[in-house]
Specification:
heterodimer, A: about 625 residues, alpha+beta, 4 domains, 5-stranded antiparallel sheet, B: about 300 residues, Rossmann fold, Alpha-Beta Plaits, 2 domains, 4-stranded antiparallel sheet, about 30% helix
Chain lengths: ~625, ~300
């Protein structure tokens, strides 16, 4: 087996070394332009795309070259089991991916660590591992596309969403999904690698491991299919609600283009005596917005590409201050000489990291706001580089913590931040001045769970602010609404009007099509994504999913689709002469996952049933 | 005697096309068994079925007494296979390929390898991609034979080889058959090769087995007659065992199968005035056999074959 591994690796060794050299060249070039370990969006996209596409293409090409009839016979007809042959091939594939994708990063990171004064934490060594796993996942999917006669294998790429999209809450949630996918896809490849590649997978476990993730991808595609049979035809007929806003619906808010008209729409039916007055006031008011929704704060050891800002920069002293997750200190360096110029801990400046006690080290990873502010979930600090002073700029009350990052607004001029209890508005100039402690000018208790608020429009009046908070689920799942609150100078609050929009822009069956075709797909994906990134409240937990209420006919449709899927799967299983275990597996899958599992059945079984005597 | 290959009702369909139909073949251990058939006869499909890389639509196939659909690594180690492309890792050198291949076969016979590869001028340091077709064929055959297989399947191994390389190849095959204990299945379109090496002749036509006997026995089934019908030959359907006929200067040369000496009187009864029996060699016999049902534009248009 090792000889086969060596032979297979030697086939791609030259190419992997060329890519290794090319990537190191790219790193050298980029490092002349910017800090290479600064995770800006373009750099992240480029290297992630390289890892994803490179792995996928390599997996496809490697197996395609083996799949040619004579090559395939040469590969499999040897005194080795199919599993050992595949292990050698996949092992060589892993080595190639390692050399071409991860090794350049490790070489570069180690070089920076050993030979420069840059901040290089353990987390910087973790990023290549992430790229390696991501690339190997797509490599395995690519090889599975060729090895398995299932026509829908490519739908497994949907699983990458769980790897690439969230900002994971811990190292466990960062890597567990990737490792699980590698394990599952390796198993499926082992099952698919057999002398006759035209035969379909028969083992119930393999069917389940293939059908479940495929069904999640197919559920997404089925949801998109509403574009084909609903949205596009209505657009063609010029009858789509986006072109003809439905009055009384939540989305009609955006049909009203001026703030005053929007406010008037939110106030429709209100008997508040000053309703007309507010509408008139808003005609001349500056409009801003605040999002009180949860934000994922940086965590210790997170991959550096998730950092929102690389460093605080003080142009006067020409120093750059970068946060080290290993030391939990802000480490300063002269930009030109790269000499260390001290550190900043929770208690202020120190001349050297060696002088820092555990009390000096930050207990949370702060994130940077502008060039002079640091914020954790408990404190906002301002840094005065000239006087080398760290000041607590603002600290919420006991039991209170920030759920959003500070948001500057230009017109009207204010800075806002949301805690778990309220939204705070500060004078913007004071907020960003490192020498001034701030107190909020306005404090707005959250009218509903901030997860239900999309955002709040703010209108500056002569005597305070009007907050028009709104959300698609403002009053609960699918119950869009608005709430108008008057925050007066001096701190008093008055709720002016609340409105729930009971008219729906789209029919419920379109809005909830994903739940209709597969209720379980949502239950399988959203809580997992929420587990990976708890602050992403758009992914519902089990409890939140169970609390949702649909119109009665939606439940009827769900049940009908499930019954249809089960019956159709049963009939197809009989037509394909599946054995009892396989039939039972498909019946359970279609009963649980409904229509996507039925589509998966068609993709995972031959379309033409060959009869020997026909 | 144990059979090295045994198929029963073996059928393989690709969509609407039937590549093999109720194919019953028995090949005994020992000797060189030649398989001939025109293109599309199902030879390569048969090999793929035997090696388990294709699943039959129905029927069964056994290789060295084992079901071809579940060949163990041990059985695969006892069956060598050489295809017409001489597939080898082109990115490796000849020497490293040999070492690579040798690692899988504990029974590797270095003497056979050296003896066979000696027929060809293979430089061990040369990359496989740089070898000539003949050198590549020689290297492939040498390795296949050095594995000391019980059964060696050669699928058109001399395709594209020049006369010298082909000669070396055949000598190497015969050397092994004599020296070793290997049953060889030899598929080729070259009749002179078959005539030279084959102990048994298996003829396939359109997925159906037509003959499985010694070459001599097969040739004895075919007879060749020269007859003068005075210009026009009778309808082919009236000639029993008819295979082919040629009109040369008004005299008809007729080839028939499975007819004895009394066939001359049959021709006489059909109007022939002068009938002379003739000898036939293997190539002509096989060609006549295979062209019998071979489609020609004329035969398609006329709705008949011949």
């Amino acid at each position: 087996m090792f000889e086969l591994y060596k032979s297979e690796f030697s086939r791609y060794r030259k190419w992997s070394l060329i890519l290794l050299g090319a990537l190191l060249g790219v790193f050298l070039l980029v490092s002349k332009l910017k800090p290479i370990l600064e995770g800006d969006a373009l750099q992240n996209f480029a290297f992630t795309a390289f890892a994803v596409m490179g792995g996928l293409i390599f997996g496809v090409v490697q197996m395609l070259l083996h799949k040619r009839t004579n090559n395939w016979t040469y590969l499999v007809h040897r005194p080795l089991s199919a599993h050992k042959i595949y292990a050698a091939i996949a092992g060589a594939g892993f080595t190639v991916v390692f050399i071409a994708v991860a090794l350049p990063w490790w070489i570069m990171t180690t070089s920076l660590d050993l030979f420069t004064n840059n901040v290089v934490d353990n987390r910087h060594y973790v990023y290549p591992l992430f790229l390696l796993l991501t690339s190997y996942i797509t490599y395995l999917i690519g090889s599975l596309v060729i090895l398995n006669p299932n026509k829908g294998v490519i739908a497994l790429l949907i699983m990458l969403y769980a790897v690439l999209a969230p900002a994971p809450d811990s190292t466990l949630t960062q890597f567990l999904p990737s490792l699980a996918f590698v394990g599952v896809f390796l198993y499926l490849n082992f099952m698919s690698f057999k002398p006759d590649l035209s035969t379909h997978t028969k083992k119930p476990l393999a069917i389940i491991l293939m059908a479940v993730p495929m069904s999640l991808g197919l559920a997404f595609l089925l949801m998109l299919s509403t574009a084909v049979f609903y949205h596009i035809p209505l657009f063609i007929l010029d009858k789509h609600p986006d072109n003809h806003p439905v009055k009384g619906s939540y989305s009609y808010l955006w049909a009203e283009v001026t703030p005053a008209k929007r406010l008037a729409y939110a106030l429709e039916g209100s008997d508040h005596p000053k309703a007309a007055y507010f509408i008139k006031q808003v005609e001349l008011a500056d409009e801003g917005y605040i999002s009180p929704d949860h934000w994922t704060f940086p965590r210790r050891g997170q991959m550096y590409n998730k950092d929102r800002q690389f460093a605080l920069r003080d142009s006067t002293s020409n120093t750059s201050w970068q946060f080290s997750h290993d030391s939990m200190l802000l480490e300063g360096r002269n930009v030109t000489t790269r000499q260390r110029v001290g550190v900043v801990g929770m208690n202020g400046f120190l001349d050297s990291a060696d002088l820092a006690t555990s009390a000096d080290r930050f207990d949370e990873v702060p994130f940077m706001v502008g060039d002079k502010l640091l914020a954790t979930t408990k404190v906002i600090y301002s840094v005065n580089f000239a006087d080398r002073v760290l000041t607590v700029k603002f600290k919420p009350e006991a039991g209170e913590y920030f759920i959003s990052r500070p948001q500057p607004n230009t017109k009207p001029d204010y800075a806002s931040v949301a805690t778990n209890k309220r939204t705070l508005i500060f004078d913007k100039a004071e907020f960003f001045d490192e020498n001034i402690l701030v107190v909020p000018e306005y404090s707005l208790p959250h009218p509903v769970d901030p997860a239900n608020i999309t955002y709040c429009w703010t209108f500056q009046l002569v005597d305070g602010y009007l907050f028009l908070c709104h959300g698609r689920d403002y009053f609960g799942f699918g119950r869009g609404g608005t709430e108008l609150i008057h925050a007066k100078l001096g701190g008093t609050m008055e709720m002016i009007a609340r409105r729930e929009y009971t008219v729906r822009k789209l029919p419920s069956w379109v809005n909830n099509f994903n739940d209709i075709v597969s209720p379980a797909a949502t239950y399988l994906s959203a809580p997992v994504l929420r587990w990976i990134e708890p602050a992403e409240t758009g992914n519902f937990t089990f409890t939140e999913l169970r609390a949702r209420e649909f119109e009665p006919y939606i439940y009827v449709l769900m049940i009908m689709f499930q019954i249809f899927s089960v019956i159709a799967a049963f009939l197809m299983a009989r037509r394909h002469s599946l054995n009892k275990a396989q039939t039972a597996t498909w019946l359970v899958l279609t009963a649980a996952l409904s229509l996507p599992a039925l589509v998966a059945f068609f993709l995972m079984n031959p379309w033409r049933v060959e009869k020997a005597d026909s | 005697m144990q059979n090295c290959i045994e198929t029963n009702g073996l059928t393989k369909k690709f969509g609407k096309k039937t590549a093999l139909k109720d194919f019953d073949l028995t090949v005994e251990l020992g000797g060189i068994h030649a398989i001939v058939g025109s293109n599309g006869a199902g030879k390569s499909t048969l090999f793929r079925l035997l090696l388990g890389v294709t699943t039959p639509t129905s029927g069964s196939a056994m290789l060295l007494g084992n079901d071809c659909q579940s060949l163990t690594p041990d059985v695969r180690g006892r069956v060598g296979y050489v295809n017409e492309e001489h597939t080898l890792p082109a990115w490796m050198t000849a020497g490293s390929v040999k070492k690579f291949q040798q690692s899988f076969y504990p029974q590797w016979n270095e003497n056979i390898y050296k003896s066979v590869v000696g027929y060809f001028d293979v430089d061990p340091k040369q990359k496989v991609s740089g070898l000539s077709r003949g050198e590549r064929a020689g290297l492939n055959l040498a390795m296949a034979l050095a594995q000391s297989p019980n059964l060696l399947i050669l699928d058109e191994p001399t395709l594209g080889l020049d006369v010298v390389a082909r000669q070396s190849f055949l000598e190497a095959v015969m050397f092994t058959e004599t020296e070793g204990n290997t049953t060889i299945i030899y598929c080729s379109h070259q009749m002179e090769e078959i005539e030279r090496v084959a102990d048994k002749l298996i003829i396939m036509e359109k997925g159906v087995l037509q003959n499985n006997s010694s070459p001599d026995a097969f040739v004895s089934r075919i007879s060749y007659w020269i007859a003068d019908f005075g210009g026009k030959m009778p309808a082919r359907e009236k000639i029993p065992g008819f295979l082919s006929a040629r009109d040369i200067d008004g005299i008809h040369h007729v080839m028939v199968a499975d007819q004895d000496k009394s066939f001359g009187s049959v021709l006489t009864q059909l109007g022939a005035t002068a009938v002379t029996p003739n000898t036939v060699n293997l190539e002509r016999a096989v060609n006549a056999f295979l062209t019998k049902n071979h489609n020609t534009p004329g035969s398609i248009n006329a709705g008949s074959q011949g």
